Amino acid sequence: MIKDVIKPVRGIPLKWTLVIVVLIVSASLIIAQVSIASGHPNSTHLTPTLTIYTYDSLINWGLNATEANNRVFDAFEAQEDCIIELEYFDDANSVLAKAVAEKNSPKADIIIGIDNVLIYEALAQEILIPYEASTLSDLSESVINGLDPDHYVTPYDYGLIAIIYHKHLVNSSNVPTIDTLKLNDLLDPKVAQMLVTEDPTLSSTGLGFLMWTIGVYEKVLNKDWELWWNDTRNDIQVEDSWGDAFDVFYTPAANRPMVVSYGTDPAYDYLFYGEPYNTTYIGATVSHENDSNYGWLQIEGLGILKGTKNLGLAQKFIDWFTGVTVQEIIPENNWMYPANELAKLPESYKYAIDPTTVTPLNDLFTPDEMEKSLDKWLDTWGQVMILGYTIAEPTLFPPSLFILIPMILVVIRRKTRRKSSLSD
Amino acid sequence: MNIVKVAYVVQALQNEVSKKKIVNKSFNLILVTPLLISFLFFYMPLIFILIDAVLSASGAITLEFMRDALVDPLNRYFIQFTINQAVISSIITIIIGLPGAYIFAKFQFTGDRALKTILTVPFVLPPIVVVLGFVLLIGPNGILNSFLMAFFNLKSPPIHLYKTFEGIILVHAFYNVPIVLHLVSSAWTKANVDMEEVATTLGSRKFHFFRYVTFPQISSAILASGILTFLYCFTSFAVVLSLGGIQFKTLEVQIYSLFHYRYDYHQAAALALFQLLITSILIILYLYFSEPVFKREGFKTFFPPIWIKLIQFLVIGGIILFFLYFRVNIILIFLLGLIGGGFWKYGRTTPLTIGEIRQRSKMKLRGLLSNEKFRFCIIIIYIASITIFLLSPIVIIFFSAFYDRMTNKWNIDAFFRLLGFRFNENGLLWIPKSNPALGANTSAINLIFNSLFFALVTLTLSAFFGVLSIYAIRRSEFLGQHQVIALIISWSFILPLVTSSITIGLGMLRTFGFIRISSQDAWIPIILAHLIAAYPFVSRTVSTAYNKIDFGLIEIGKTLGASRWYIFRNIEFPIISSGILAGATFALAISFGEFGATYFIARSEFTTMTIGIYKFLNLRQLQNSAIMASILILVCIAAFLLVQKLGEDEFHF
């Protein structure tokens, strides 16, 4: 009886809704299954998978990047019967940030690209486990000590941070001191406007350059490094990552013929463009203060993450990566000096800046100092770049607050006037 | 799909306060439980943020972190930038949108409704898609720049999008113009026309007429759209993250980089709390200005008049103090003061009513052609240019999905390649291949599946919780009648909307970091974040649908002895079902478009399409990015049209 009285007014009957709900739920379950299945297409229990986080320019700059990658990663896969899954990030900083974010339940087994500045953060966050590679005796001792004497991170390459420039755009006519460049020469706005660098909070290359300026000014010249950045902040272009900066450097329209990069870049240029003519089109320079060369040495390493499920495999990979086979691929593909002293250098490296001719600024800082001050330096850099150096101590009540008084007066007057007009 | 939709839900709160309720005398635990669960989901992360912000390492309550975060010159600069760009964006948005609102309110032409719908599309797109559209259009190698460079023989691109204030403002304006179009034009259409006729008869001048008759009636809509735009720009993440560089960061981006690059949890939490405070105040202001109903029933019953005076004074004084402390551009303060003063003096008078409000027959645009050619031309030019402005970034995305800008060739193959299809001698093969740009083990097809999975689960759960919570509020005496409880419940609708996506992400990450969730279960916080974003919309649509129920019918049912379930099944459910469906569609679109929180939490197994777009964009793989974006756009547009179709009256902001 009631059924006749009460009829659905309009809308969708319950029956259909139930069908829809069931469909949706089952569809989402199926999708979840498919998603997981297709997410791990090769994840059988027989072949272990080694997951590696690294930056996207690793071994990607050779004449044949695919082939070089095959020789490094596919060869290891074949040798150990495993699968390597690479995950690329913009920069080594992002690699570390990701690894720290996943500290409690790491997905990756290995991170590649921890350099001699990032290492302090990596050690402070306790995300790595130490491993003494079997190739350790072949690696350059100064490089090992410069990176991590405790072997949490094993060095695989190193190189000088340098300012590189197009020779036809930057020469003695517009920058007279280009062959003996001092950091002070960059204070000239005309020169500073040629330079593009990287954000040290986001890029390890940029961080290297920041350390370079701090080292030269604080340790060599005994001046305030902040002043240098303050004077150049409106003229230098700052990009997020090394790749972005390099894009700008090679875009003629951007008009930035100088970039903070590596001392091996002339060798890169020689291999790609200059070999037939036996010359290079780009030059590189470190800073020449007090008649000697100073530069910041970047040492890159790889380490095993705490919580890895493939410890043995990860250790084998580190041995492989620091072994002679891979180390001889690194110079002309990652464009850094190999850490392994047995690896032969290619011919193009005669154009690179030889790190032995430069006093590394790294030695002027103690590890303790680096660890303690790094955050402060980065904070200060951000403030100087964005706000300028002369920051007055922030006051809670700036004098402009006195403008409030007349405003309040106006409000009160309006209120009373309205009241009196109402009572009238 | 973001915080801007606040307006949409805010009305639900007003409904909750003002609508009559059918009251169930017994305290029903079953109905309260889902409400408590949803409270827990949402308030847990907030509590963790609060803990991070005010609890020092030794466990004592301290304001040190808050103070440090707000005194830090860099943070103050970013807050100042955030406010400046939000104010300028909202002013510019309103300036661009107002003529459009006027045209849509006053003129009739073929396809005006369709055009209005089309122009709303930017608003329903995920911000990251909008960014991509602008990068393709006016980025350094964008179509417009290449064209201008070729045409005028320029050496460098004339339009700068990256790292410029103007670029950010432009994208924000693009995103928010539809709000102004919608809100103001509907208020303008509803404006009392009788007064207009009276005024014209009495020989009122046009300006006078506008100032005394029209403006008071549309002022609250203008203010409302202004506040909403401000809210969106204030919590903008994806746009500023992609375009800002080091110079420009909103609070959201600063919180993100503090957390992810500096590992400074305390400062990040302090800033998030501060941001939450500001957005909450803004929403209260919005409620205060938008609807007298809430003001009357909500505030006045709680506070005696002297309190209201005090609160007004505190709010005005606080805002001025706040602006001065963060050194917001002094000209902007004066401009805002001027605008605010104008609204204060002329805007908030009670709407004038003489007789019955009659829908005025709109002017025919065609009629204008013969009479006033100049005005006609202006209107046509405006319509054409705003259509181009709002649609070209979207069109360009579809274009770029199939066109390789590097080689200047059509490249349809890339579309299939990205989705994992391969052609070989055996025919079409489907072999998804993992893409290192997206993450280990992750192929593009995974992103689509992940997005679909999240969207469907969010849809189901939010529909479930949404219906239950509305049902509980409406039917339980305890929840529906008690004033304080009602206020708390109202806030449970509003707070999730006020909370920016980064804040949700931060809270989730802290909560689950605390619980130590394993890597396979990382999808849980993502689903919860999506749920928090989507569930208020479902509640709102269901609540609106619920108002249509004829309560007499329920009483009849009861009298005739029908069971509770039977009444729900046959009377209530058929009516609210369209509301549920509309809300669920909303949830789907929100989940698909969510970027901030997912990006904050996501691990690469659970990368969604929006993050894929961002990653491709970052690595300059524009075509792949465009392919993903075009799929996403299609989904969002379909959802939007479905919502419109399902409940025309439900989709009025």
Can you walk me through this structure?
The complex is a heterodimer of chains A (424) and B (653). Helix content of chain A is 42%, strand content 17%. Chain A is α/β, with parallel strands linked by helices and 424 residues long. Chain A folds into three domains: 38 residues; 171 residues, Periplasmic binding protein-like II (D-Maltodextrin-Binding Protein, domain 2); 146 residues, D-Maltodextrin-Binding Protein, domain 2. In chain A, the strands form two sheets. In chain A, strands 1, 2, 3, 4, 5, 6, 7, 8, 9, 12 and 13 form an eleven-stranded mixed sheet that branches. In chain A, strands 10-11-14 form a three-stranded mixed sheet, with helices on one face. In chain A, helix 3 runs antiparallel to helix 13. Chain A is globular and about 80 Å long. With 653 residues, chain B is an all-alpha fold. Chain B has three domains: 234 residues, MetI-like (MetI-like fold, Orthogonal Bundle), CATH 1.10.3720; 245 residues, MetI-like (MetI-like fold); 29 residues. In chain B, the strands form three sheets. A two-stranded parallel ribbon of chain B has the order 1-2. Chain B has a two-stranded antiparallel sheet with strand order 3-4. Chain B is globular. The N terminus and C terminus of chain B are likely disordered.
